[in-house]
Design the sequence.
């Protein structure tokens, strides 16, 4: 093997290591932000037992769990140097491990969005006893996407959810013309879901973003930081 | 008068107890809280269960007073309401 090839190999290794480091740092930021939101609102929830607060907190707990499994999938992809979770040879990794991880990621992320949506909507439509329906939908969709090896149905659901959120935001905006508050928040929710979908695309089609991946990561982290700032400021938490 | 929500009613009940040197008999508390008896007792048992209030007996009379958790609720009430408003929960 010539010196040129050795340098290229070293360079390739450095690129992979840099990507892994970025991935770990990104996941760490999002997981910590989500958990800080969850624990930062613990006291006001325990005092008030307010249902909207409960769903809001659950959303961020599920975001943290979803990002944990997302980073696990990313590490598997890096480790085996493949571009899709279904491309890993069964000889290298027990397919059950990757399939269960993907199912969990899909379940937790769908639930995070459902909870966030529900925290805003539950006062208008009280389906509290039917929250299990959201769990069932998320499980069925996650299992179906993985078993059928068709993760795009999952992406379809998330895009549908985004459209739904946009409709809710539009209706709320129309109904609260006199209010000045809340509109920023809806913008954050839309951005949160938008970047969440980009994150899902990043998992399902790892080559989709290429050079834009870092921008997506920075923007997503920015949204979570903004949310964390607003939550900690308003919750009066230390 | 607009209908009070659950948190506001809890705050009102706790505030009445606090403004009575943190000790009040149950009958004046029901009267001052502007709730029907049945409604009041629902909140009463919830507040006892959540350890916001405690009952003490003094010469055949039952007195209600706030616990530390009840005081904490009053202290944090504005924060809780602002948070719910801000995030449209």
Sequence:
């Amino acid at each position: 093997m010539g010196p040129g090839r050795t340098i290229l190999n070293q360079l390739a290794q450095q690129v992979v290591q840099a990507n892994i480091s970025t991935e770990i740092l990104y996941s760490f930021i999002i997981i910590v932000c989500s958990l800080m939101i969850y624990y930062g609102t613990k006291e006001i929830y325990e005092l008030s037992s307010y249902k909207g607060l409960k769903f809001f907190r659950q959303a961020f707990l599920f975001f943290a769990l979803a990002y944990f499994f997302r980073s696990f999938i990313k590490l598997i992809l890096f480790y085996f140097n493949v571009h899709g979770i279904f491309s890993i040879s069964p000889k290298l990794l027990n397919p059950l491990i990757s399939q269960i991880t993907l199912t969990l990621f899909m379940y937790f992320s769908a639930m995070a969005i459902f909870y966030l949506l529900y925290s805003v909507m539950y006062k208008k439509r009280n389906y509290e006893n039917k929250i299990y329906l959201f769990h069932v939908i998320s499980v069925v969709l996650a299992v179906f996407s993985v078993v059928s090896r068709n993760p795009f149905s999952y992406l379809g659901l998330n895009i549908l959810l985004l459209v739904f959120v946009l409709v809710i935001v539009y209706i709320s905006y129309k109904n609260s013309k006199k209010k000045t508050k809340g509109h920023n928040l809806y913008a954050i929710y839309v951005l949160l879901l938008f970047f969440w979908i980009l994150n899902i695309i990043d998992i399902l089609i790892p080559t989709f973003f290429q050079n834009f991946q870092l921008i997506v990561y920075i923007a997503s982290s920015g949204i979570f930081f903004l949310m964390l700032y607003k939550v900690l400021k308003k919750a009066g938490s230390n | 008068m607009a209908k009070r929500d659950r948190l506001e009613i809890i705050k009102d009940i706790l505030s009445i107890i606090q403004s009575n040197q943190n000790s009040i008999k149950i009958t004046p508390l029901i009267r001052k809280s502007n709730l029907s008896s049945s409604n009041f007792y629902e909140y009463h048992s919830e507040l006892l269960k959540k350890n916001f209030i405690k009952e003490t007996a003094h010469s055949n009379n039952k007195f209600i007073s706030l616990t530390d958790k009840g005081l904490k609720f009053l202290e944090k009430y504005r924060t809780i309401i602002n948070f719910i408003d801000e995030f449209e929960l």
